[in-house]
Amino acid sequence: MDNFKPLAATGLPARVAKLSALVPRGEAVAEAIDEAEAGWNGFCLWLAAASGIDIFAYKLHQLHQRLVIRRQLAGVESWADYRCHLLDRPQAFARLRESLVTSVSGFFRDPEQWQVLEGRVLPQLAGGGPLSAWSVGCAMGQEPYSLAVCLNEAGRLAGSKLVGSDCSAMAIEQARRGVYRSALEKTIPERLHPYAQAAGDAYALCEPLRRAVQFRCEDVFSRPFAGGWDLIFCRNFLIYLNEGAQRRLLRRLAHALRPGGVLFVGRSERVTQPEVLGLAVATPYLYRRVAP
Which domain-ending residue is among 99, 119, 140? Predict the structure, then answer.
């Protein structure tokens, strides 16, 4: 770095040549980079503690890109100043916290996967009786509610334990209310018609369906969770995690399944070396627990 020289400005417009003289060189560059990295790392440590979300489990380069834009929109230049900005503005911090997680889902999302689940997997779980299922990162609850519809049509809803969890408090509150704007869902899924009624520009799920699912606001990385599940959904969540966090979470989820239980991941997600986790591949996105 000490021998660093700017590219020759020969042939470039005079304006660019003048700007090149302003670029910091040598040790100044390294110091500026170190200072910027220290500021970012310190901000991440504070944000993880203040939000209660283990942001280090996520792909930080993606988070950095998003937060740089939010910081610029706030009109501050350093991460230290942005932290002060958020501390002085609780509502801005609350909006930032909600933006840390992706709360996107839909009823019977990826229908072909649901067909396989209903036709080949659900009949084999829990001896065809009531079952226990957990939807990790359930967003606004469409996934566990979809499962509740499947189980009700199969006569298995009574006695089943269905849980949805997400670290977004707003998403969980929406899930508990069970009210969805039609514009958000485009059209009400036909299969949902017997369980929903119009409410202005939205539709509301019936009370029996809402009572069938329990919702929890929690970060899956910040607390232990119970085992003995017949079915765990972890769909379109792994893609946001770094490789180390993926491995840790998949190990815990695999151990939380009872023998014969199934882990359901997203269409573009895969479990590498599932046998190491005691899992066997049922389909590219369904994995069955085979080890005790």
Answer: 99
